[in-house]
Amino acid sequence: KNYFKGNKINIVATILSMFFSLVMVFGYSYQHSNSWDLIFGSLFQLMKSIIVALGYYIMFYIIIKLLYEKLDQHRNIETKDKVLNFIFEKHTFIMSFIIILIFWLPYIVFFYPGTTPGGDVRDEIYCIYHLDNYTLKSINLISDDVYINTHHPVIHIAMLGLFMKIGEAVGNYSFGLFLYTLLQVILTIATLSYVLVWMKKRSIPIWIRIVTLLIFSLLSFIPLFAVNLGKEMYSSILTILYILLICDLTLDTSKLKKKSFNIILIIVMLLLMLFRNDGIYRVTIPFMVIILVNRKLWKRLLLLLIIPIVIYQLYSSVLLPALKISKGSIREMLSIPFQQTARTVEVHGKNAYNEEEQKIINRILDYDSMADDYDPNSADPVKNKYKKEANSEDLIEYFKVWIKNFFRYPTDYIQATLNNTYQYFYPDQSKRVGYITLDGLDDGIFNISLKEDTQEERMIIYNIHKSIRDLPVIGMIYSVGFHIDFLLVSIGYLIYKKKYKKITILMPLLVTLLICIASPINGHWRYALPIIMSFPITISIITLNEKSEIPKEE
């Protein structure tokens, strides 16, 4: 009451607080009942939920308002400490690289040769060696002689294949994969070190740079992903580089005159397209916003965007088919409607759809097992039953049924999506981060596994990681929802300060958020990793010195 009295209402903080209060109430309900029954189950539950939501609203409003006020009072404090100047001013890149590497050495040594995100890496390697694997269940091959397909990015499959062949040549597959891991670690540390160089050039406050180096060095989830053989780290560091390049371009459009800058930007955009099947959206949507904001330069900017798109289209539509590399299944884009259909059947029984509708659904999915397969937090069990014989006409007929029944079962459709996405916003949901297995590769064929004599050290590392994650308040940094909510608060601050140009810099992260919502698994770190690793960059962008925001004249 004392805080609200005499204070001007902040509209942005009000909207964000209302949203976060709903997230907390709905998140709790879905976490404990996989439904909103703890809110709407009875009049008493609804009244309780309103009271709790009001309490959360007041708490969030005060926190956000105070945070915004502190940011308004923000000042850049220079340091005269010789050690800090040596690290953060004179030798930023090399010192950051050495410090991060030292802290990451235990992960490199004890997680030899690397870890895997489930069976994805195994399937990629099996494609290379022409072995039966999961991806083939949903794909019609161009040639039975080529198992490689675009279910996973082909460039990543090729990299794994190269290092597997190196391991095969020296008689040790583990050594080959370790070389892959080592390369990924080096490139990741180099990217994070460059972030600190970029911060120095942009006169980011020294305290933010210190915190950034501590985050990159000490938070276990980053090195755990750096020693992971999956594709997530490459797409994450490329997203970081893309954001930094967009920021430089936005704040200084004269960079378009530099050939080196244009070449680097094109290469980063192209690589991001190649390392993610949805990479073209991650690149194109943010850059189209940049073009709209800088309409006077639209021709030059459009050319910059067209070049990587044309190269990517030639690669995906000409080169890959010529190499008999098959396309991945369209099912990867259909998690939301498939979950909605499955939940409807699970809630209302097999007769939720009439016989004709059941036949149409059964052409693309296994209708009879749909209720048993349904997992509120993962679309994979239902999506994995997609029939590769299904054609475009079957999909069109399915979507007609899907749209028709939306008006019949609206709450089930809405709940299916909420249940499969709430953890991306609910900060009280901390899931296990990182992997300590080489799932599927200790298979009697390649016999790749983590060393048994370092098992104890791995468990110590993981237990430390888990202990920090479970700490009150501090452990929130291990929550996917915390990082996404912080991104939203940051964008809210930029709206509040009318710094709309800065919002365009964060567009790659907003597109990543949309992709997370459409992803098959609820609150998965792999999908949100670019947002999580960009946490210090987001802080830097909203606190950029006014002088660094004035673009040079064209």
In short:
The chain has 554 residues and is mostly helical. The chain has helices spanning 11-33, 37-40, 43-72, 82-90, 92-110, 120-128, 154-170, 173-201, 206-218, 221-226, 232-251, 259-275, 279-293, 298-322, 335-348, 355-362, 370-373, 380-383, 392-406, 410-419, 455-469, 480-496, 500-505, 507-518, 525-533, 535-542. It is 65% helix and 0% strand.
Question: Would you spell out the secondary-structure blueprint of this structure?
Answer:
Layout: H1 11-33, H2 37-40, H3 43-72, H4 82-90, H5 92-110, H6 120-128, H7 154-170, H8 173-201, H9 206-218, H10 221-226, H11 232-251, H12 259-275, H13 279-293, H14 298-322, H15 335-348, H16 355-362, H17 370-373, H18 380-383, H19 392-406, H20 410-419, H21 455-469, H22 480-496, H23 500-505, H24 507-518, H25 525-533, H26 535-542
Annotation field: number of helices: 26
Order of helices and strands: HHHHHHHHHHHHHHHHHHHHHHHHHH
**pLDDT below 50 for ≥5 consecutive residues: which ranges?**
548-554
What is the number of beta strands? 0
Query: Mean pLDDT, rounded to whole units?
Result: 90
Helix/sheet category: mainly alpha
Estimated helix fraction? 55-70%
Largest beta-sheet details: none
Radius of gyration, CA atoms, in whole angstroms = 25 Å
Strand content: under 5%
Instruction: Sum up the overall morphology in one term.
Output: globular
Q: Gap between N and C termini, in Å?
A: 51 Å
